[in-house]
Give the backbone structure.
Amino acid sequence: MIRLPLNAGWLIAFSLLCGCGSGAGTVVAIALHPADPNILYVVTREGPLKTYDGGTTWQKLFTGISQSRVLTIGIDPATPSTVYLGTKDDGVYSSYDGGRQWLSFRAGLDDVRVTAEVQQIVFAPGPQKRVFLATAMGVFESDAERKSWQKRMAGITNVLMVTALAVNSGRPDVLYAGTSNGVYKTTDGARTWVVVNTGMLEPSHVMSSRALGVSTLAVDPHRPDTVYAGTLDGLYKTLNGGRPWTRIGRDLASQSIHAMILDPSREDEVYVGGPEGVFKSHDGGMTWENRSASLTSRNVLSLAASRVSPTLLYVGTNGGGLLRSRDGAATWEPVPLAVK
């Protein structure tokens, strides 16, 4: 397998996406408890934090285990006390008590040339309790007993770095993987992948420095064949599972999409974030409203919405900390990351 070189612009943009700001003012990832809106986790450059009271107070997690920088966090929606941390250079850590104790979970990741930099953690619904990783060395899946990781890259060619994953909640064997060369799809639980770039990438671009970097993916919870792909050069949408894609959001202030969420209770409501703030669509991405007026920083790195209260949103910024909206992104208020 050959890893194609990426151009300098893509690498610079990707480093910003990973949150190369300073300290707790940079929030690179947010994870909300699926049932209790007062419990959430954030990942800052100073490490992961957790609150039980909606952000009034915070506790540090993961202290003394590793010096590696934490990049992402995932909560098992079926068992919210199960939490995973993905790191740079140190694999994955897991907790089964809500973050009080952590275990190293890197078996299988050490088999690659370098320990995989973990970009995203995805839980597939169903009795098998499957967990997938998007890493700098490809897609990995945990085994049934969650003791090791297996690489799942059959069919993903000419690229190693996988930057985003999304799963069809109604058909958990259907997943999408975002890479520097566009999107791949599996219908057999990541055993095999096929490229689905029609409408997204010209064939000549795939083998050039102009290849597209996919930063975020989202499957529509109301119409699972509808999928959105945010890239560092535009926003795309498909209505039939990736064949083909149509570019949308051409009037957005920035075509570099860092984060995206779909409203779980309202059809066609989409939020995206990037270097020019937060934008909201009520019509599936046809038109957009700027929802950035009260942000302390418009360089948005992460977005999250509550499953039980969809108008409750959080945004993580590069340098402006964490902000909360209680009214569907109409207004934002800072949430100080005050640690006990």
Observations:
- Confidence is low (pLDDT under 50) at residues 1-22.
- The longest helix spans residues 8-17.
- The domain at 8-93+196-335 is CATH 2.120.10 (Neuraminidase).
